[in-house]
Amino acid sequence: MGFVGGVFGIGTRTDRRARVCPVLRASGSENGDESVDSILMIDEVVSSFKSMVEVRDRSYMLRMYRNCFVGSDAVDILVKKGLVTNRRDAVKLCQMMLSEGVFHHVLREHQFEDAKLFYQFTEGHGEKLVRRGSKVSWSDFIRPETKKIDISLQPAMPESSETPEITPDLPQIDLNISEQLYPLDEYNLRLLDNTHPSAWQGPQNRQKYQMLVIGGGTGGLVAAAGSAGVGARVAMIEKNLLGGDCLNFGCVPSKALISAAKRYHAVTNDQSLSEFGISVEGAKIDFGKVMERLRRLRADISVNDSAERFASKLGVDVYLGEAKFIDKNTVEVNGQKLTFAKCTIATGGSPRLPNLSGIKELFEAYHRKEPEAPTIVTNESIFNLTELPKRFAVIGNGAVGMELAQSMTRFGSEVTVFGRSGRIMGKEDVDTAKILEDRMTSEGTKFQLNVEKYVSLKKTGVKNGSFVEMELEVVLKGGEPKTFVIDTLLIAAGRTPNVSGLDLEKAGVKYNRKEGIIVGDGLETSMKGIFAVGDCCSAYKFTHVADFMARLVVRNALFFGKEKFSQLIIPWCTYTEPEIAHVGLYERDIAKKGEVVTVQKNFADNDRAILEGETEGFVRIHTLKGSDKILGASIVGANAGDLISELTLAMNADYGLGSVASVIHPYPTRADAIRASGDLLNKNRLTPTVRSILRQALKLQN
């Protein structure tokens, strides 16, 4: 046919101002070798198409469908009017318009077909065209900044020792959407265009929604997509950036940062390199380019969570604004009242500040971009950095703090981690956490883990490059006061559920500021028909947990399911080096149920680990005495986050460790340590009595 690839933005994210659509004349043949006589802008094609087709109410199987046209009629008209030369080309043209979101099947169950199927135009939903062939973009209002050359089986989750109940939440700073990201270069503008388009129009109030989702992070996106995928009428409301923490401030940017730090460390770790007979000289870090890559990759990935994709491809009505309950079946957003049968609240969580004199005022000053404000960041702002701070401090000794502390140390910052508990990674086994602490210490990270009180934070009046110097005063256990001079402070001291401002009381939804929204095992709140998922209601604050909570809600809310959250088997991983991964119960949890049998295979005995020079860590698996049922496991070492999935699968399928031992693994692999752990358990089960019986059986064969 000769259509240009990506004609309606399909498969490309190039400049939308140049999008064109070739319109074919009768100068070709049926075999698809037609020539293009004229080119029309998209708006002209869509406008012509709308004027041609007959739009009216139609009925089928005793059901009325409002304002729709028939697919085969549209094909007839396109051929008759001469816009295309044959029916096949007409179908291709219509499919392109459907993919772009110009119209959709009335039940969102079909692509475009030359058949007696009903389709409706998507009116008033999405980005507003402000000039012919051009969509409003953040770049219409903000000039991109020029780059500078220089640049269950669910364990108890212990509370962070950094966040007692008196800890205040972060100050509510009223920032414009675009002010949350820095710098506003082409990548962050593209991220904004995807996750909060500047002139997005929500659809006009429609009939009652079968599922309304509040929050567009992982939990909300999965709940909305899953509900729409099974045919429900769905609305999703997000007041900030679609994609939530994971895309914008968490999993995605942090792993890009960690990857860069790991590579730089690999070529500057002289001791490790010399053992392999390798010498690398002159390796340098360009922190500005590290962060630019992070922004580029985040923008690339953001298309999956974009408003346009959810509205035009998945059939979700997307509203960008603040949701407030009016009653148990109604939410207001942007002045519109939306009614629903079922609702999922997925508002996530936010970082919170430690109880420290002066921090609130300095934090607010930095995030308002006041002159001479010191750099105080959370996970929601650290990825805005474009320069490497010389002295980097972290308050918080959990996963987020450790991942970022190790990365910043590897980039060359002088890093100090502060904590109260005397150790890091409070939910992990003591010896597991010690392996990581020792590794980080050897790389240069300093630890102050016996803080009794955080006293004050204040500016010194000195500038260190572009950073405003601060003094952090603490009292160590035993009463010793100590002051640390720093350039940047990262707060990674726990999170608080986002439950304020929703008017949950009007809907009869019970909550508290510490635990968030109160839900039952089926994730339903105190109000029937209203559910909650993710950080706003769960102690398991992981992206993948929010994902599977949302899947559970779709089944329970829309299909009368009885599935229980407590039955989910939840793995997680901290992406330091070495990685720390866990699934199921810890030994301390199992001990309450009976005598624990633990088998452990050290990577020092694994041939692949020996050959790669990465022998830190182990595979540790817990069972109850007299059983090979896997109740929990921890893995410390390279790629632990990938390896833990084998044990998670075995636990989900109820395969015992003996069964895992019978699985053939390629040699040499790290995963073979899992199989070898099963061999250890089988060997331990060979009691003297069993051995005697086996010996007698062998004698009988002679």
Task: Describe the protein.
The strands form 11 sheets. Strands 13-12-11-17-30 form a 5-stranded parallel sheet, covered by helices on one side. A 5-stranded parallel sheet has the order 19-26-20-21-22. Strands 31-32-35-34-33 form a 5-stranded antiparallel sheet, sandwiched between helices. The protein has 21 helices and 35 strands. Helix 2 (71-80) crosses helix 3 (87-100), helix 4 (186-195) runs parallel beside helix 9 (287-301) and helix 7 (251-268) packs parallel to helix 12. By secondary structure, the chain is of the alpha/beta class. The model is unreliable at 1-40, 128-134, 146-151 and 163-167 (pLDDT under 50). Helices cover 31% and strands 23% of the residues.
Protein traits:
five-stranded parallel β-sheet; 21 helices; 702 residues; alpha/beta
Can you lay out the helices and strands and say which pair or pack?
Blueprint: E1 20-24, E2 36-41, H1 42-52, E3 56-60, E4 63-70, H2 71-80, H3 87-100, E5 103-105, E6 118-121, E7 126-127, E8 129-131, E9 134-135, H4 186-195, E10 200-201, E11 211-214, H5 218-229, E12 234-238, H6 244-248, H7 251-268, H8 270-275, H9 287-301, H10 307-313, E13 317-320, E14 324-327, E15 330-333, E16 336-339, E17 343-345, E18 349-351, H11 359-367, E19 375-377, E20 391-395, H12 399-411, E21 414-418, H13 430-443, E22 446-448, E23 451-464, E24 467-476, E25 480-486, E26 488-491, E27 495-497, H14 504-507, E28 511-512, E29 516-517, E30 530-532, H15 543-558, E31 571-574, E32 579-584, H16 587-590, E33 596-602, H17 607-612, E34 618-624, E35 632-637, H18 640-652, H19 657-661, H20 672-684, H21 688-701
Parallel strand pairs: 11-12, 11-17, 12-13, 17-30, 19-26, 20-21, 20-26, 21-22
Antiparallel strand pairs: 1-2, 3-4, 4-6, 5-6, 7-10, 8-9, 14-15, 15-16, 18-27, 23-24, 24-25, 28-29, 31-32, 32-35, 33-34, 34-35
Helix pairs in contact: 2-3, 4-9, 5-15, 7-9, 7-12
